Amino acid sequence: MVSEAGEVKLKEIATKITTIEKAKPKKATTKAKYHSLIIPSIKLLKSLHISGEFIGLILFLTALYLPLTIFIMSGFVRTLPRELDEAATIDGASGFYTFNRVIFPLLKPSIATVTIFVSIYAWNDFANTLYIISDSNKWTLPFSVYNFVSQYGTEWQFVFADLLSVMLPILIVYLFLQRYIIEGMMAGSVKG
């Protein structure tokens, strides 16, 4: 049994904890941040008169996935030895030649990784495409699945055939670029 003084003390502690919890700033979730981004972007695209066009979708997706691209590429470039630049400069190579002949071939694994990630993300992007391109005649290939689905029934044989055709382009991109990704993973795994 808790005494009256002990009960008062527990109430004081509970009140302090509740006050502290209420005073903590609430962190916005990723979804809240995203939704605060999409509305101004759509308004901007509408004011530029490219809201229902492919160029509007391309510009929006470019802006959306550019941070990921910069993050991956800058992380990979930081791992390249600075001595490569210096050796090329000592040999008399210009900056353009050094980048084209020395640095760019070493960037292939990171470029392949970025290409695969961004391609898959953009290909599977449903909501942004729906928001920006509302005309069903301009929908992208992944939206074609909805031509075979209605409230009265679903033509499953057509849905699965269409899913196979929708999946094929991204699978081909992955098959061509997978060796670069494996090369990049192996390059960073062994020192020396």
TrEMBL record:
TM region positions: 54-77, 102-123, 156-177
Kindly name one Pfam family recorded for this protein.
BPD_transp_1
| Top-rank taxon | Bacteria
Q: Where in the cell is it found?
A: Cell membrane
Q: Does the keyword Iron apply?
A: no
InterPro entries referenced in this protein's UniProt entry, alphabetically: BP-dep_ABC_trans_perm, MetI-like, MetI-like_sf
Q: How does it sit in the membrane?
A: Multi-pass membrane protein
| CDD domains membership | TM_PBP2 (cd06261)
Which UniProt keywords are present, listed alphabetically?
Cell membrane, Membrane, Transmembrane, Transmembrane helix, Transport
Segment forming the signal sequence? none
Task: Give the principal location in a single coarse category.
Answer: membrane
- Domain ABC transmembrane type-1: start-end pairs: 1-177
Homology family: Belongs to the binding-protein-dependent transport system permease family.
Query: What is the protein's given name?
Result: Carbohydrate ABC transporter permease
